[in-house]
Amino acid sequence: MPAVVLIGAQWGDEGKGKATDLLSSRLDYVVKFNGGNNAGHTVVVGDEKYALHLLPSGILTAGVTPVIANGVVVDIEVLFEEIEGLESRGVDTSQLKISANAHVITQYHRTLDKVTERFLGKRQIGTTGRGIGPSYADKINRVGIRMQDLFDENILRQKVEGALDQKNHLLVKVYNRRAIGVDEIVDDLLGYVERLRPMVTDTSLLLHRALEAGQTVLFEGGQATMLDVDHGTYPFVTSSNATSGGAVTGSGIAPNRIDRVIGIVKAYTTRVGSGPFPTELFDEWGEFLAEKGHEFGTTTGRRRRTGWYDAPIARYTARVNGVTDFVLTKLDVLTGIDRIPVAVAYDVDGVIMEEVPVSQSDFHHAKPVYEEFPGWTEDISGARSFEDLPANAQSYVRELEAMSGARFSAIGVGPGREEIVQLHDLLD
Ligand code: GDP
Ligand code: IMO
Ligand code: MG
Questions:
Q1: 330 assigned binding-site residue
Q2: Cα separation, 228 vs 231, whole angstroms
């Protein structure tokens, strides 16, 4: 099973980091192919808790080569902070490889992210403020700075000048901010060159050779399907392709290489930031899920919005990503609920729709049509096989599986590495 893609099935924070970590001992490479340090993955290994933003979660496992591929936007300051944080805790990061084609997030991207959000007022996206959108905008506008530009000072200076030409007008005249000097950006970036030199390479070729040699490569998506710039709830999305197609364009491997697509789906739903969310709860159950599930962002600390499981979203995710296996996470959080509602369809202004509507206005109006399933009260965190789960938990899982468009191959029953029920081998 050489090339495996792992993606988020909802609006992020499904437990992708934990799932990647779980598989890592059997992997040769873990590749981050989209997004940047807007991601936040919490991985719990024994008594140790790690918060990762930019580095792929496979970095925690010795013997895995972590790769930041061309589809990622890299804030170099954050990169080295994260590397130093891990090294100080004994994690070896020396194998890290970064694509020469990955784009760089600079100070002007962070500034623009924050000021444009402020200008949007009530219409704001609720971004993480990390400069993600402005950096991808520069990439598409062909005024971005790439990793390889750092190794040619003349080129770097020309490119920063080109980018700032436009942006300083915008910053000063529209947003009433100070102009940013070319030298401060160039000097800052050049300060990292020698440390970056051994890491920056042709990662497309590296991954091609690894796959040719029969090695196992996992492509770890950041964000999630409903935050994908093409297939998510636009404009309330991130600025990259978080779906499985993004693993191809974001890494330079071919689509026919991919053998398996693993979707990570939570047993309920959460969302950070603005945008439609049909099953969102504003009552004590919303509070229950947030508290019991510790639904506070790894990146910004914001309380995540919470709601019940949404089966049309899982089906949509299965379809647009080609999900072969789902990992259902955080089932333990639902323990103690008498009857558990699940959205099976939407009522859109009186019309019943079983699929995610293509019209954003319809999705904004969508009211969930719920079915209820009996809950359980037993602690399930010690379950290691499906039979260990209470009968009602088993039937909840089977009902969700039947509605979600792909088989459930593992079930998370706690944050720890070992707190998992395996149903099918995810890599075989
Ligand atoms: P990611 O962004 O998809 O990697 O997910 P996050 O790390 O942002 O959020 C998932 C949170 O749930 C983390 O704090 C994990 O430690 C935790 N987690 C993952 N799987 C489970 C599970 O099965 N049960 C419980 N209770 N927590 C889990
Ligand atoms: P992981 O990988 C949840 C959300 C932000 C905002 C929108 C756009 O941990 O699942 P951006 O800064 O990307 O321009 O913000 O996307 N967002 C996430 N929400 N999990 C994430 O990553 C996210 N990354 C971005 O909250 O609504
Ligand atoms: Mg997260």
A1: yes
A2: 5
